[in-house]
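Before going further, learn to read the protein records used in this course. A complete example follows; check for yourself that the lines match position by position.
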Amino acid sequence: MSIFGTMKTGVSGMNAQANRLATVGDNIANSSTIGYKRASTAFSSMVLPSSGGNYNSGGVSSNIRYSISETGGYSYTTSATDMAIEGSGFFIVAESREPGAAQFLTRAGNFARETVEEPAGSGVYKTFLKNAAGYYLFTPSQATASSNRFSGSVVEMPGNDIQSTPTTAGTMKFNLNNQTEDGATWKTSMTGFGYQGVEIVYDFTFTKDAANQWTLQITNQETGVAVMPDIAVEFDPVTGELTTPTGTFDIPAVANQNDAITIDLAGSVTQNTGSTIMSGGLNGNGASAVKDVIIETDGSIYIQYQNGSKVLTESRLMLATVTSPDNLNPVNGNAYSASNTSGILIANDPGTKGVGNLMTKTLETSNVDIANELTEMIESQRIYSANSKVFQTGSELLDVLVNLKR
């Protein structure tokens, strides 16, 4: 048995516990970090060959492992761009907006809007989604498998868009008074929108012709001009249900002004006591600026405008899975890169089997258990102290050996 070997064994034990304390320190420091995955230390013995009655002490080596596949808890937020994954998938992120930028995987879904003028001085603003670590949300061009990176681009949306939606359809649900005298009229109006958000008010005037028979005239309120030929409206004399027209009719389009508008009367117009509007209206919206970004659980990304309308963007969120997530290489910002042992990366739509479900207005917290970390800290401290005693004892034995000469 070598005294120097014993001292080196004690040193290896102290080094191993120092690594363990380092992981505990990192875990505690990041216990409130969104998407953080705890690190742990695994030990393995180092054995030297021994012969006869001589035992050669070896030591201990430490290996750092990351519990990447272990899910943390969830917390709810009010931000529409905060996301979490229920399952084994990862968000795909890029280091920058430049083509060819390094790509990583992350569970940190605390994204926020970043609106920039691009190109600079162009007056064109674009909005990107960037998480707290500075990574941009990336979307592959299609569902695919790859060894280390995907083809596609960062999620991009208009940042200063002014949008209007022309009216294309409408419904009318109302009741006409069966006690109205012949020749009397009842009028209501609905507001639609033409090109460039121009507001158009349509007057709908019903004139009683005879029992159960009316004539509908539709005019542009501003000009007072009829926008189409009059329509005969008839009701069943027993039930009061609409019999004519039986389907829909179109308000014709006007060149450079508005699209054709399909009006549905069937099943929603009746004749009974008292004329009243029950529901209905025209679709479309006037000019409105961008208000927010809405991400649906299927990965669809919409722009929400201040008038309440939302428009589907060309970008679509996909999630990635990897064969062996615990073998990914960790990088700064709670992100991970592919390694030789992590396996193939696969990008797919949220909700696809094996990928997991996307949760919005939700964040995944770290998977660190503070009580467990403090317990490991105390345990590691005691073991470190014990190893130091081994080293100290070996040093004292060496002193005894040296003093034998005296």
Notes: The chain has three domains: 3-70+367-403, 77-160+313-364, 167-283. Residues 3-70+367-403 form one domain. DSSP finds two helices and 32 strands in the chain.
